[in-house]
Structure formats: C-alpha cells, structure tokens
Write a structure and sequence with these properties.
The complex is a heterodimer of chains A (249) and B (289). Chain A is α/β, with parallel strands linked by helices and 249 residues long. Chain A has helices at residues 45-53, 75-78, 99-107, 121-132, 151-162, 181-197, 209-214, 233-237, 241-247; strands at 2-11, 19-29, 34-39, 60-65, 68-69, 82-85, 169-173, 201-205, 218-223, 226-231. The longest helix of chain A has 17 residues, at 181-197. With 289 residues, chain B is mostly helical. Chain B has a domain at 8-209. Chain B has a two-stranded antiparallel ribbon. The radius of gyration of chain B is 19 Å and the shape is globular. Classes of the chains: A alpha/beta (249), B mainly alpha (289). At the A-B interface, helix 2, strand 6 and helix 3 of A face helix 7, helix 8 and helix 9 of B.
Chain lengths: 249, 289
Amino acid sequence: MIEIKSLYKTFNAGRVNEVKSLQNVNLSINKGDFLILLGANGSGKSTLLNSISGSILAESGSIEIEGIDVSRFPEYKRSPWIARVFQNPLSGTASDLTILENFRLATLRTQSKNLKIGINNKFKSLVKDRVALLGMGLEHKLDQPIGTLSGGQRQALTLLMCVMDDLKILLLDEPTAALDPRSAQLVMQTADKVIRDFDLTAIMVTHNMKDALAYGNRIVQMNDGKVARDISTEQKSKLAVADLYEWFG
Amino acid sequence: MDFYLTALLQGLCFSGIALGIFISMKIFNIPDITTDGSYTLGGVVTAVMLSGESSPLLVLPIVILAGALAGTFTGLIHTRLKINPLLSGILVSTALYSINLLLMGRSNIPLLNYENLYNLITLSPDLNLNTLLTLLIIVGLLVFIVGYMLSTDFGISMRATGNSETMIRALGVNTDRMKVIGLAIANALTATSGYLINQFQGFADINMGIGIVIMGLGSVIIAETFINWLNITSIAWMLALVISGAIIFQFVLSLTLSVGVDATLLKLVTALFVLIIVSVPKITFKRSA
C-alpha cells in the first residue's frame, strides 16, 4: 500500500539549529495494516507522518502509494487516498461552519467543489444516520456550528468525516492527546471501528503506551530519524506496557 | 429628509465595498487594503468608458473584471511570493494610483452630461426614487449572487479556507488558489461600488478611494455586532446585515454633518465612529464576564 524508500528530511540545513529529522527511513506498509508509530519527541515520527500526508515535502527518497510515486505531490493532490485526524481537534474541523457543512466538505474530499448547492435533504439524512452511530445525540445538532461542540465530539466527528468519501489511508496524529480519558477512549474505539469497517490502512502516532498495545497490528519505533524497531503482530501480542517504556530508557 | 435619502442611496452604493470586505476580512481573515485602489479603479473605468459614450450596462462587466484583476494581483503577491496580505494590498493599491491616473489622463472627470445607470431605466418619474429602485435591484442581485455562491460546495470550501486552513488542505482544496479567487471576488465587488457611486455623484476623482476601506470595515463590524448578538448562522441574513451596516454607517456620517460638524473633520469623525463600534462590544463583554 505504502512504500517508503530512503527518505531524508533536514530542517534548517547548514545552520546552528539544524535538525536531521528523517535519515534514510525505509518502511513498507501493507494494505489493512494499523501501524502504531512510537518515538520520543524529536525522533521524527511526526515528520514521517507529515511527509506521507504531503504537508512536508521530503528532500530525497520516495513515497509510493499503490505504486504511484507521490513524493512531489502537494498535500491537496494526495487527498484522494489520504485523510487525517490531527492532535488538535480544532485543526480537523472548521469551527464556524455547521456540522452539516463540515460533513459536506469531507464528502467532497476527492471531488471538485463546484458551484452547486450540495446540502439537500438526501444529504442531510445520510449525515444524520452516520452521526447517530456515535450515540452522542449529535444528529439533532447538525445545523450548529461545530465550534460549539467539545473536543472529544469534534474528534469523533472528524473520524466519521474521513470515511464520508472513498478512503484508503487514515493518518492519526496523537488524536487523543488533547482529550480527557473518557473522550479519549471513545475516540479510540471509534477510530478502531472505522478502520475495521472501512478496511483502511492506518498509521497512528501516539504517546499512550496502553493505546499502542490495545490497538493496531504493528508497532514501529523511531529514534533519531531512523526506524529503530519494527514489531509485527505476533511479537506485539507478547509485549507489555513496561517493555515499551524500556525502549525509551 | 433629502439628507437622509442621500445617506440611504450612498449606503447602498457602498454595499459593494461592504460585501467585499466581508469576504476578505470575515471569510478569509485577510485584511485587504487593495480596496482603496480597486474602488477608485472601478470609478475610473466607469468614468472613462461613460465619457467615451459607452452604455452603463456594458461598463459594469468591465468594471467587475478590472476589480477582479486588481484582487488577483494582491492574491498572487500574497500567496506566490509569501508576502504579508496587508503589504500585498498596499503595494497593489499604490500601483493602482498611477494606473488610475494614467487611465483618466487627469485628476477628475465630470459625468453629469453622459448617460448613466440611474437614468437608463425609468421605473419611476421621481429621479431619487428611480435611483433608489435601481440601486435596490442591483444590491439585491449582488446579495443574491454572493449568498448563492457562499452556500454552494465551492462557497463552503471558501469559508473553510479562512476558518481552518489545515483541515481544508487535507480535504483536497488548493488554499492558495482559493485565496486568489476570494480576493478577486472581493475586489470585483469593491470596484462595483466605485461604479455605482461615481454615476450617483456625477464625477470621478483620483482621490476618491483614500481611506474608503474604513467604510467597508465599519459596515462589516456593525453587521458583526448584530450577528454575534442575535446568534445568526444563515449566510443570507449575514449579508443583509452587512448591507444594513453600510447604510447605518452613512446615516451616522450624515447625522454628524447635519448637527453642524465641520466637513474637514469628517474623516476624524469616521475614525472615531469605527473605534467606538469596534470597542463597544468588547467593553460590554468585559462587564458581563
């Protein structure tokens, strides 16, 4: 699904504050993988995620999605495959727009946004049914600006928005870092369900070791811009939280 | 009474600027100063074409195109060269001063002897009423077109661009292109105001645009106060309030003049008025918090 070959990225090259964020990263991600990306701060995991999404362009190396080299594509051109959930719930939704309008945009992720009025009754009932799946009662608030909802609700909606349109890859960047434990759990369960139900390939950056073990089928640990460990499903099931902490020691 | 009618008519003429600033400031969060230049550009193109015996109906699309072109330049300078939008607007606006002077060939053109929009169609024998009706139709059309556009899928992505750029880029929108289009539309609307006001006043002047951006800002801020106060989410109502803001603004200016404030002080009064409407919601907010 995703083939990453000898990827390099350096920030502030040649200056005092030079950071070699990615150094020869090679990674092959299969279709249906739910990969957990671990690493200390500054280990390059966010840079890796951002290079896959296209919000950062790597200096050298290649990223192939379904055999197409996308490494020079700007972010908006990779959107046919990729959807993202950000750490900050505010980044994944547009506060001033209503839930319905946010969903409308998400529905058109891979299509052109033209001069037609797309929010009609049919679309409304579709969104209503989808949102009702969350069991948060949000289906009655579709005309409210999404900014009036809590972070957890917004994050859960963002996940649903991702699968409104044809999707292959879901990138999650610490999706629960800004949430309270209860909302965090709800968002993680929603994410897991969405990934299974829609047969997605997912990559999640997290600092939560419990989540790292509870979810996903593969763990990759990054260190100093390189892949330090790559743990497959069988080995992963034998890991305990304490083992993961040791990696950071 | 005539005084207030004039204020109403001027308010309607300025609604193009108000809608333009609404788009650049409220939708895109971009402070766009191109306004001063594109408003004059609209007026100048109108004056040059009308004095060349062109029909006012033919002039309008050219004015819109000219305004859009000015906005496109600001947008391109801002997005391609990564220059602060405020500076981009000032650059284009400054350049436009010379362009406008070049187009006119002198610093002002009187238009009283030429055919204009307000005597083109006779809806009422009363000249003032006829002007009012014509303006209402045009402004109504502008509100309809802008309102429709903002409700479409394209319009929603436009509104999201100013609201959550990270999100909308991840949803496959080229935000740079969107900003250029937005600024083009905003300045096309602003130029339309120049077109309306010049035919109303009967002349074009090279300095007509100086500080005009404040009219738009003031109108939008008045509208915003009501939008927040009444919790309005409907685009149509927002636009209607923006137009009302433009009219209220002119009424206040007329009122200050009619109570005998020296016309020299008009810009000072305008600035103070905008300062008041900007600060009043914040002061009352503090008290309740």
